[in-house]
Amino acid sequence: MDYSTLIAKDLLKIKAVFFRPEEPFTWASGIKSPVYCDNRLTLTAPEVRTDVENGLAELIRANYPDVEVLMGTSTAGIAHAAITGHIMGLPMGYVRSGAKDHGRQNQIEGRLEPGQKVVVVEDLISTGGSVLEVVNVLREAGAEVLGIASIFTYGMKKGLERLAAAKVKNVSLTDFDTIAKVAAEEGYIKPEDIERLIRFRNDPSDESWM
User: Average pLDDT for residues 17-27, to the nearest whole number?
Assistant: First the structure.
């Protein structure tokens, strides 16, 4: 099944992806963006959530058939790793953004044996920095990271280069170009906005798209 258009429609319908080129959002990094993405909203929309989790399970089976454990990114990837792990009958855990300062001081939660084949479940990839930290923690613990499965990727140059340099494969249910195309077809944005959105995606620091 082609999930990319289905998930694009789903994310737009529940405003998990929201385009506002005329009134840009400001990201935590200070970048002005024509798009806001909050995939956590998929968790409170059961029909969309079902599409996402079935899609992730299919994506993982097709791309990483040898997977033994799913590891979610903290916090957005945890629920998706749990539900997808349930569908696939696989163990899951998650990686904290930092080691906790109490108890056993784990950064990896859940049982992970050295040599196990792991797929990282992430909700969104932009510049790739946070997900690569997770990959590094898992590699240091002796896991064999097969790659990443994510709901949505921007396909930003910086992110693609970082993933390539770290030799990490990522597969996503949908991407920025697909969502922009579907948004124009369904009247969320004007067709002429697509070119501006792609210019933003190609270089977020260049504000000429505005």
Answer: 91
Element (H, E) at 15: none
Closest Cα to residue 37, out of 120, 151, 135?
151
- pLDDT tier at 28, thresholds 50, 70, 90: confident
With cut-offs at 50, 70 and 90, classify the pLDDT of residue 162: very high
Q: Are 81 and 67 in contact (CB under 8 A)?
A: no
**What's the rounded Cα separation, in Å, for the pair 59 and 46?**
19
- Reading the block at residue 60, the tokens are 């993982």
DSSP state of 207: G
d(CA 117, CA 103): 27
Of 17, 135, 121, the closest CA to residue 75 belongs to: 121
3-state SS class at 152: strand
CA angle 162, 38, 54 (to 5 degrees): 85
Does residue 78 register a pLDDT over 80?
yes
Full-model pTM: 0.92
The count of C-alpha atoms lying within 13 angstroms of the C-alpha of 100, restricted to the half-sphere facing its C-beta, is 12
**Section 48-71 average pLDDT:** 98
pLDDT given at position 105: 56
Only one residue has tokens 């064999």, namely: 144
Bond from prior residue into 75 cis (ω within 30 degrees of 0): yes
Q: In this structure, what DSSP letter does residue 23 have?
A: S
Q: Which residues pair with 93 in a beta bridge?
A: 71
